[in-house]
Amino acid sequence: MTVSPPPSAAPARPLAGLRVLDAATFIAAPFAAGLLGEFGAEVIKIEHPAGGDPFRRFGTMTERGDSLAWLSEGRNKASLTLDLRKPQGAEVFRKLVAGADVLCENFRPGTLEKWGLGWEVLSAINPGLVMLRVSGYGQDGPYRDYPGFARIAHAFGGLTHLAGLPGGPPVTPGSTSLGDYMSGLFGAFGVLSALRHRDKTGRGQQVDIALYESVFRVLDELAPAYAYTGAVRGPEGAGTLNACPHGHFPCASGGWVAIACTNDKMFERLARVMGRPALASPEVWGTTARRLAERAAVDALVSAWTGALARTEVLALCHAGEVPCGPINAIDDIFADPHFQARQTMVTLIEAQLGAIVVPNVLPRLSETPGRIDHLGPRLGADSGRILGELGLSEAEIADLRAKGVV
């Protein structure tokens, strides 16, 4: 791990000069805003005065009163408290929009419109505004009004049906927030595409992201295969439908490895590493079709081989033989792994009250204008006075807004 350099020691970032308003909560749209902030955009996190983003209380809590999840995902953002439901709060918001480039929101469709802050109103104030709108089911369609979270998106989008062991119950596919993070990535890409269009035309636009569509988009051939063959894929356990051996295998040390022989050449290499080169002959398991037809026997043989060796031995043999193989890491394995350390995949930042906090580092890596983490998630309302003052509000006006619970 590495300690993040001070901002003055880092080069300029490509999105410097953009102002992003993050009026969303929890993960998907805020994650998109956070990615933009890592690459130089100024991100103003707009939170309700009473408690702020619920993500501040999601996960492991700290002595500061905010969760570790918030400290990580609120990185690089300034916090402004503002009640958009109150007329004075809506008026301040409209002033902010007038000087913004991007607005990220994830209210249920129609909510901002109900408050007089819908697209028609905001785009009239700022024709160049790019508005990212993330919701469970999108801005239209018969399910638009249904609430949605990542777990629901995994289920509705088709991923949960594929997760688990054949004949068993569906299980959570990895992180319960996977759909949120994928939607944030698609959202950031959509925002950058819309900004590119604005550079050419001066016109902003809406970016509509449905959580379930982000999940559905990454399910490889699921849709075309069903349309073409009528086949309905089900849970495949640790394996996969189209390749073998391609799964998780136990080792004598108690650990597990993942092996991915996605083609015949990879299996030929594995057979040599196992000391059984004849297995890769056309008459035995040398073709994908033969291996898939006898998947249970192939997996059992590979499991017997890995199960007789320590995980370090399996990894060393496979790496030497150019067989795709990796350890199934728990987080303690990750912290100890030299590759994570060499790549600085995690970074340590210092929080004034809590001290050293480790978070995932910035992605992607740019060679000339890399992103960076300037600070962890701020305290609620930490920047309200400064931001409101920059809008031209006097100290007396700000005090009045505070007294009325608007900020």
Write up this protein.
This protein has 407 residues and is of the alpha/beta class. It is built from 17 helices and twelve strands. The chain has helices at 28-38, 68-73, 87-98, 111-114, 119-125, 150-157, 178-201, 211-217, 222-229, 264-273, 288-293, 295-307, 311-320, 331-336, 338-343, 384-390, 395-403; strands at residues 2-3, 19-22, 42-47, 77-81, 102-105, 130-135, 205-210, 246-250, 256-260, 325-327, 346-351, 355-360. Strand 2, helix 1 and strand 3 form a beta-alpha-beta unit. The model has no long low-confidence stretch (mean pLDDT 96).
Features:
six-stranded parallel β-sheet; 38% helix; elongated; alpha/beta; three-stranded mixed β-sheet; single chain; 407 residues
Mean pLDDT: 96
Q: Report Rg.
A: 25 Å
| Structural class by secondary-structure content | alpha/beta
Number of strands: 12
Order of helices and strands: EEHEHEHEHHEHHEHHEEHHHHEHHEEHH
Largest sheet: 6 strands, parallel
- Please count the helical segments: 17
What helical percentage do the residues reach? 25-40%
- Beta-strand portion reads 5-15%
Distance between the termini: 38 Å
Strand order of the largest sheet: 4-3-2-5-6-7
What shape does the CA trace take? elongated
Topology at a glance:
Elements: E1 2-3, E2 19-22, H1 28-38, E3 42-47, H2 68-73, E4 77-81, H3 87-98, E5 102-105, H4 111-114, H5 119-125, E6 130-135, H6 150-157, H7 178-201, E7 205-210, H8 211-217, H9 222-229, E8 246-250, E9 256-260, H10 264-273, H11 288-293, H12 295-307, H13 311-320, E10 325-327, H14 331-336, H15 338-343, E11 346-351, E12 355-360, H16 384-390, H17 395-403
Helix pairs in contact: 1-7, 6-8, 7-8
